[in-house]
Design brief:
Strand order of the largest sheet: 5-6-11-9-10
Radius of gyration: 20 Å
Structural class: alpha+beta
Order of helices and strands: EEEEEEHHEEEEEHHEEEHEEHE
Strand content: 15-25%
Length: 319
């Protein structure tokens, strides 16, 4: 059975289990094979065959309980953005146009333009693969950090995410690319609406990131590294670095790749997107080995040249 994925790799799995209702969880109680928990397949690099069971959660409902909004993990992230805009739930406008499902959002602690989803998560309902029971983890128990959470340990299947959004619209315009866009398009901050902010974010992302339905990709291929500020020269990567309040500096992986790209051996099946050098595109027919070999090559060269470790953003699923 083929596994759908936004990078367009030809990948198959031995079997699939779909969770359409909580009753379907009973099928997980006796599993003793390797499992792959898959959402929309937008953040994975897959080998040609997974010798196990792919689990897909298809719960897509939205429940309102006071200030708490409980959302099924299978709902498309874009649908939640639209729901919030229509129903006046504020705070995640900056996360517009991120591909994937609601259930995938906590795993990566998705973030963009100065906003991380963990700021709005009250709790996560999940199936514990060790205890074979449904559990609810509060925000602290999820152990959120930059592009990380407890769910990366693969011990849980996310069923629902419980959010608490802002009652009043207070736009986060701290990210330079966003504030620059608003100025360039003569958008007055005082008249900014949630919908206009969301549309602005969508326009920015469209100008930098290709639609995976047209050009297969998984978005950013590497995380932006966090480096101790005292270990960096003040001029290193000037204009492509962001000073953080905790003594660390975030560096642009895109710029680091640009600096070593002439030294890379890139197969014809792959290329970096012309508008954003952090986006790797499958030209057609790329293999798992070609992709992982290129990523390893980039990591080695940047470590040798700049003494900086780059972490791969999508999950690598080997056979």
């Amino acid at each position: 059975m083929l596994i759908s994925n936004s990078f367009g790799l030809q990948a198959r799995a031995k079997n699939f289990i779909h969770i359409d209702t909580t009753d379907d969880l009973s099928a997980l109680e006796t599993i003793d094979e390797p499992i792959l928990i898959l959402g929309a397949g937008t953040n994975v690099i897959l080998s040609d065959y997974f010798d196990g069971i792919v689990i897909e959660v298809r719960l897509k409902d939205i429940e309102i309980n006071g200030n708490n909004i409980s959302v099924g993990a299978g709902l498309d992230w874009a649908d939640l953005i639209d729901y919030c805009l229509i129903n006046e739930h504020y705070g995640i406008e900056n996360l517009t146009h991120i591909p994937g499902s609601v259930g995938a959002a906590p795993v990566q602690n998705i973030g963009a333009y100065g906003v991380e989803i963990s700021s709005f998560i009250n709790s996560v309902e999940c199936f514990n693969l060790s205890t074979k029971r449904v559990e609810t983890l509060n925000c602290d128990q999820c152990k959120f950090s930059y592009r990380h959470s407890i769910f990366k340990l693969k011990n849980y299947i996310i069923l629902r995410v419980n959010f608490i959004f802002n009652k009043f619209f207070e736009p986060n315009l701290s990210y330079p690319a966003l504030s620059d866009f608003l100025k360039e398009h003569s958008i007055n901050v005082s008249s900014l609406t949630p919908k206009l902010l969301s549309e602005s974010i969508k326009n920015i992302r469209n100008s930098k990131l290709p639609d995976p339905r047209i050009l297969p990709n998984v978005g950013s291929i590497f995380k932006n590294p966090l480096v101790s500020s005292k270990d960096l020269d003040d001029t290193f990567l000037a204009g492509h670095r962001w000073e953080l309040a905790d003594g660390y500096t975030k560096l642009s992986s895109a710029r680091l790749i640009e600096l070593i790209e002439p030294e890379l051996s890139i197969p014809d099946t792959l290329r970096f997107y012309e508008n954003h050098s952090l986006v790797l595109v499958n030209n057609g027919g790329a293999s798992f080995k070609e992709v992982t070999s290129l990523l390893n090559q980039i990591q080695r060269k940047i470590l040798d040249k700049f003494k900086i470790n780059l972490d791969i953003e999508p999950e690598i699923i080997a056979s």
